[in-house]
Design a protein that fits this description.
This protein is α/β, with parallel strands linked by helices and about 425 residues long. It has a six-stranded mixed β-sheet with strand order 4-5-13-10-11-12, sandwiched between helices. Strands 8-7-6-9 form a four-stranded parallel β-sheet. Helix 7 links the parallel strand 7 and strand 8. The structure holds pyridoxal-5'-phosphate. Pyridoxal-5'-phosphate binds next to helix 11.
Length: about 425
């Protein structure tokens, strides 16, 4: 990429977005495509001018913005007047009364990114930001290492933006995730290996090919997109913070950025401060963060993933320690649940609220249930649970657990007979009768 293009992207910074800064030692860097501190190898994060934001942003200026994540543009690390807006964000915040009653809660909300645009997962948020920044920095080819949803988002939004795209996935992903990437016609590399191996390979490619990897050299920008999950919940609750949030953890990035989003709105005076408890969800078959949390460790021991929650299957999570720190200091918890509990929770959410989530959402709902049963969520707390992906993409996981249609002849008596039996048998038993 031409140096002049990078310089222009940096010099045109007129918003609150200022620089990159090391999360560990505080060293500052120009906002280029870089993600690791040269001094201490800590992760880089975007730094903003909060005084500028306090002076220039109000609830009204936000509400006058587009119905997408870009209503929060001053809080995002881009300089473009016209960021890539494919309608990402402003997904529904639903009051989940029927699920709440089943679990014994009173004020439960679901932030439903299963219907995010354009690819039905929260990853559309991070990719919209990353590719806008990639374009500003002059990249013409974008890439990522993905557990599935990121590949879908990167391929789709790159197609919209006219960027070349090459994405990397583990070769054992669900058919819906593979097909949902190929349709956008990127180059798709299915790697024999798990996500952590794919990610390592991508770090090498990033060094040699000069591509913009949304979750590697563009990671500081990419990860900021998740803050919008915090901003939207505040706005949708009528400019209030909830008491407790429950969110899934893969690398831990999403979790830490919801926290950052809440803190920023407090800092610039958009919402009144109050304590919010942060609880995290993992699948038992890949729970390095939950394990460290339960053992009171402040370091992660990497694991080899083995779970149906493939979108959460990161064995060596980059932001794991930061997620643990947030759960600890907010008096939250990080729990893990079994694959069987994940499937049950997917069904529970669908049957009570009409939301078909993927295995990651099942992980989150199962964890919510577990926390309530253990008395770790107070029924009076306003609790927001984040549903991050869509069930149509992970159909394999529930095949065989949801019964079958009742197949009948096109005759009234055939229908009546089937209806009679369906009333006396539950659908799974009915299936057995047919077999
Ligand atoms: C990637 C992903 C997550 C978690 O993302 P991290 O920021 O890496 O923790 C959660 N849910 C779904 C559906 C995902 O695809």
């Amino acid at each position: 990429m031409a140096q002049a293009t990078q310089d222009k992207a940096i010099n045109s910074v007129t918003t609150a977005f200022q620089a990159l800064q090391c999360k560990e030692c505080g060293a500052e860097y120009e906002p280029k495509a870089t993600h690791v501190c040269e001094l201490c190898f800590g992760p880089l994060e975007v730094k903003y001018d909060y005084d500028f934001l306090r002076r220039t942003v109000t609830r009204e200026t936000i509400q006058a913005g587009p119905h997408s994540i870009w209503r929060y543009r001053p809080f995002l690390p881009v300089t473009s007047e016209n960021p890539i807006d494919v309608g990402t964000g402003m997904t529904p915040l639903l009051q989940a009364n029927r699920l709440a009653r089943r679990l014994g809660l009173k004020k439960l909300y679901i932030k439903n990114d299963a219907v995010n645009m354009p690819t039905l997962s929260f990853k559309d948020r991070v990719v919209s930001v990353a590719l806008t920044r990639a374009r500003e920095l002059g990249f013409t080819t974008v890439s990522c290492a993905s557990t599935g949803n990121l590949a879908n988002s990167t391929a789709a939004i790159a197609a919209h933006a006219g960027l070349d795209c090459c994405v990397f996935i583990p070769s054992d992903l669900e058919a819906g995730k593979v097909l949902g990437t190929l349709i956008y016609n990127p180059t798709l590399m299915a790697v024999h290996g798990n996500y952590d191996q794919v990610n390592r390979l991508c770090s090498e490619v990033a060094n040699t090919h000069g591509w913009g990897f949304v979750n590697i050299n563009l990671r500081p920008y990419y990860s900021e997109g998740s803050k919008t999950l915090g901003y939207e919940v505040i706005e949708q609750l009528g400019w209030q913070l909830p008491d407790h949030i429950v969110a899934p953890l893969a690398s831990g990035s999403l979790f830490t950025k919801i926290y950052k989003g809440f803190q920023e709105f407090v800092k610039v005076g958009l919402v009144d401060e109050k304590p919010v408890r942060f609880s995290g969800a993992q699948a038992e078959g890949c729970s390095p963060i939950a394990q460290a949390f339960s053992e009171g460790r402040d370091f992660i021991s990497p694991v080899k993933p083995n779970t149906i929650a493939k979108s959460l299957a990161i064995g060596n999570p980059a932001d794991g320690v930061y997620a643990i720190d947030i759960a600890q200091k907010t008096n939250g918890n990080i729990e893990s649940v079994t694959d069987a509990e994940i499937i049950d929770a997917m069904k529970l959410l669908a049957e009570t609220e009409g939301i078909f989530t993927e295995t990651a959402g099942g992980t989150t709902i199962a964890t919510l249930k577990k926390l309530v049963e253990a008395g770790k969520i107070n029924p009076d707390e306003t609790t927001v649970v984040y549903i991050t992906g869509n069930g149509l993409k992970t159909q394999e996981a529930i095949q065989g657990y949801i019964g079958e249609p009742l197949t009948i002849e096109p005759k009234l008596e055939s229908f009546e007979r089937a209806l009679e039996r369906s009333r006396t048998l539950d659908r799974l038993e009915w299936q057995q009768v047919l077999v």
